[in-house]
Amino acid sequence: MNKKVSIIVPLYNTVVNLKQTLDSICNQSYENLEIIIVVNNIGEKSKNVVKEYSEKDKRIITFNYQEKKNSSKLKNIGLRSSTSDYILFVYSNDILEKDAVLKMMKLMKDNKSDLVQNIPKKIYKKNNKMRFITEDKIPKNNIVGNINNDLRLLTNNCYCDTILIRKKIIQDLFFNEDLNKFEDILFYYSIKKRANNCVLMNNSISKNIMEFNNFLDEDLEYFKVIKLIKKDFDSYDESIKNKIYANLFTKFILILMIKTNKNDIRLIKENINKLIIEFKDYKNNIFINKSIKYIVKLYLNDNKILKIINSKSLYFVYYSYLIK
């Protein structure tokens, strides 16, 4: 089972908790690792941290780029540079448990899987206390199968960090470099299509430190991603499409909920309406939670929209209670 695993760490723009992240990688109980760090557009302090770790751990390979690149390009550089049969993306706000790689590799071998997915615990501060949520329900037992026979494998947590992938199923698949954001979501669904056998873990083996930013123009790239995924799954069974559409619909509503403020009312309503145009039948989609449909109704009501905007805690309420 001691086959080499490539851990790809793309670093760009703001980098948080970098030492914690690198410590959690370098101190893995599974030691046969190739740690590929791709650096672009980060501060001197973070660059010095990368240099310090690469000097003391010879498993680290560093690529430094001065010319600004988007996150897709950095991830693709990591993919093309890897020399192992297994790929694991870890981002700068991720912290792995000590046995994370060992547990994932064991599941990969025992189930002859192409992909092992972990649902990270997302850490946030509330009332000066550290709390956590997850963006999907963690199953009581490991779920093994593929998206054609078990829709639970299409999780709402559709990012690529801390998912172990057998490299042979990636082949010519790379992150879309025309996207400056949400490229993970497109890659996630594309790789799930290719995996004949997936495992969704029954425990979380990583933490993710939540970052809160304002809604930016690049967030509108979400609609590009929606169109690409709809095209990609056009010929698939309706139940699979509806589950994916529900995930995409829900995620965007929650992005608006956590990123917008009272100055964004026009922007919110405009984008809710764009979302409804993309998913005209959302009211009949059984995979969209009733509370999300209700929140959409409130967002479109001039008298109630401010109440929703001022209640960012609803984001945490949704994930803390409704996924249980």
Keywords:
324 residues; alpha/beta; four-stranded mixed β-sheet; 18% strand; single chain; Spore Coat Polysaccharide Biosynthesis Protein SpsA, Chain A; 2 domains
Please explain how this structure is put together.
It is a single chain. By secondary structure, the protein is of the alpha/beta class. It folds into 2 domains: 5-209, Spore Coat Polysaccharide Biosynthesis Protein SpsA, Chain A; 217-322. Helices cover 40% and strands 18% of the residues. It has helices spanning 18-26, 44-56, 71-81, 100-110, 183-194, 222-232, 238-259, 265-278, 290-299, 305-309, 313-322; strands at 5-12, 33-40, 60-65, 86-89, 94-96, 115-117, 121-126, 129-133, 143-145, 163-166, 198-200, 206-209. Helix 2 (44-56) links the parallel strand 2 (33-40) and strand 3. Helix 5 (183-194) packs parallel to helix 6. It is globular, with a radius of gyration of 20 Å. The two termini are 34 Å apart. The model has no long low-confidence stretch (mean pLDDT 90).
Name the structural class.
alpha/beta
Largest sheet: 8 strands, mixed
- How many helix segments? 11
| Secondary-structure element order, N to C | EHEHEHEEHEEEEEHEEHHHHHH
CATH class category label of the largest domain: Alpha Beta
- Coarse morphology: globular
Short description:
This protein is an alpha/beta fold and 324 residues long. The protein has helices at 18-26, 44-56, 71-81, 100-110, 183-194, 222-232, 238-259, 265-278, 290-299, 305-309, 313-322; strands at 5-12, 33-40, 60-65, 86-89, 94-96, 115-117, 121-126, 129-133, 143-145, 163-166, 198-200, 206-209. The relative contact order is 0.12.
